[in-house]
Specification:
By secondary structure, the chain is α+β, with helices and mostly antiparallel strands. Helices cover 31% and strands 20% of the residues. The chain is built from ten helices and twelve strands. It has a six-stranded antiparallel sheet with strand order 8-7-6-5-10-11, covered by helices on one side. A four-stranded antiparallel sheet has the order 1-4-2-3, with helices on one face. A two-stranded antiparallel sheet has the order 9-12. Helix 2 runs antiparallel to helix 3 and helix 4 crosses helix 10. The chain is globular, with a radius of gyration of 20 Å. The chain starts with a helix and ends in a 10-residue tail after the last helix. The relative contact order is 0.15.
Length: 310
C-alpha cells in the first residue's frame, strides 16, 4: 500500500520504471527514453536542439557522440590498461595505477585463499557494485553469501538499460580484485577533476565517506562553489589541496586531451601518493539535478559541443 501511495504522489517513479522494463525498453529509442528520464528528474522538457545545461549536454553527448573508445573507458579493467599505455606515452609513472590483483568472470571463480588480507572487489561493467574487504577474517559464511548475491545480481545486469549510456552496453561483466588503498585517518581522499577539451575547470572533493559522505564542488582556485547535487551534502571545513595537486591536474588534462568532456578521478592515500581512479564520461548519467538549478547552466557554459549532426 505504501508503494502505491508513493507512485500516486510521485508518478515519475512509475514512468522511470516503465521505460526500463523489457518489452517496452526494446521498442523505445535511446533518445526517447532519455527524454522521459530527463523530464521525470528535472520536470522540464529536454532541449535536444539547443542544450544549455551541463546535464543536457551530457545527455546530448550520450546520444550523438558514439566513439567506440568510450566502451573501453567505462570498463573498470580495460580503462586501467588504456590509462597505463597513456601514462607510458606521456612518460608518467605507472605507480599511479591502482594495482590489479586478479580479474574474474564469476564470483565462484574467486579463490579467496589466494587474495591478500585486505582488498577491494568491484564489477567492471556498472556503477556502485563495490565491496571493500578490510580483513578476510571479517568474512563469515553468511557475509560471503550476501556479497555473492550482490555481485551475481550485478553480473546479470546490463547497466546500459538503466540510463541508456550506450557505452556500457558492450562491456563484459566481470569482477576485478585490486589493492585496497588506505587514506589518512582511514578516510581515503577522492578528487574528481572535470575537464573540458583537455582543460580542468573545477573539481569535486569527496570526504567523510565512513560517516556521512560530503561532496563539495570547488573552483581551480580552491574556492568552494555554492552548489550541491541530488541528496549529497557539502562540508563546512576548509578545502585543502594535496601536495601532489599540480601533478594530478597535469595528468587529468593530459588524459582528457581530445575529449569534449572527461572527468578524471584520483585517490590520495595516507602517504600523500595519488592514484588514478575512474574515467567518467557522463557524471551521474546526466540525470542528477543541481541545487540551486542555476549551476546546471553555469557549468553548461563551460562545454562546447562538437559539430555532430542529428
Amino acid at each position: 500500500m505504501n508503494k502505491v501511495k508513493t507512485v500516486i504522489k510521485h508518478p515519475h517513479i512509475l514512468l522511470e520504471w516503465l521505460v526500463r522494463q523489457p518489452g517496452i525498453r526494446n521498442i523505445v529509442s535511446d533518445k526517447i527514453a532519455i527524454s522521459v528520464l530527463y523530464r521525470c528528474r528535472f520536470h522540464r522538457k529536454m532541449d535536444w536542439k539547443n542544450p544549455k545545461s551541463i546535464n543536457e549536454k551530457f545527455l546530448w553527448l550520450t546520444v550523438f557522440d558514439r566513439n567506440p573508445l568510450y566502451s573501453i573507458l567505462v570498463d573498470k579493467y580495460e580503462a586501467k590498461q588504456w590509462m597505463s599505455k597513456k601514462l607510458e606515452q606521456g612518460c608518467y609513472s605507472l605507480e599511479h595505477i591502482i594495482p590489479t590483483i586478479n580479474i574474474y568472470n564469476s564470483f565462484d571463480s574467486i579463490d579467496f585463499e589466494k587474495l591478500p588480507d585486505s582488498f577491494v572487489l568491484k564489477t567492471t561493467h556498472d556503477s556502485g557494485t563495490v565491496k571493500v574487504i578490510n580483513s578476510k577474517d571479517d568474512i563469515t559464511k553468511n557475509s560471503k553469501e550476501s556479497i555473492k548475491k550482490q555481485f551475481n545480481r550485478s553480473l546479470k545486469r546490463n547497466y546500459y538499460w538503466f540510463s541508456r549510456e550506450w557505452q556500457y552496453k558492450a562491456v563484459i561483466p566481470r569482477i576485478i580484485a585490486e589493492k585496497k588503498l588506505i587514506g589518512k585517518n582511514d578516510d581515503l581522499a577522492d578528487y574528481k577533476i572535470f575537464c573540458f577539451d583537455g582543460k580542468a575547470k573545477y573539481w569535486n572533493y569527496i570526504s567523510n565517506r565512513k560517516i556521512d559522505e560530503y561532496v563539495d564542488y570547488v573552483s581551480m582556485d580552491g574556492e568552494r562553489i555554492p552548489c550541491s547535487q541530488g541528496d549529497y551534502k557539502t562540508s563546512t571545513g576548509d578545502i585543502r589541496f594535496p601536495e601532489c595537486w599540480n601533478e594530478m591536474v597535469e595528468i587529468a588534462e593530459y588524459m582528457s586531451s581530445g575529449f569534449t568532456f572527461l572527468r578524471v578521478d584520483f585517490f590520495v592515500d595516507e602517504n600523500g601518493k595519488f592514484y588514478l581512479g575512474e574515467l567518467t564520461l557522463t557524471p551521474s548519467s546526466g540525470l542528477l539535478p543541481f541545487h540551486p538549478d542555476e549551476w546546471d547552466y553555469k557549468f553548461g557554459e563551460m562545454m562546447k559541443l562538437p559539430n555532430i549532426s542529428d
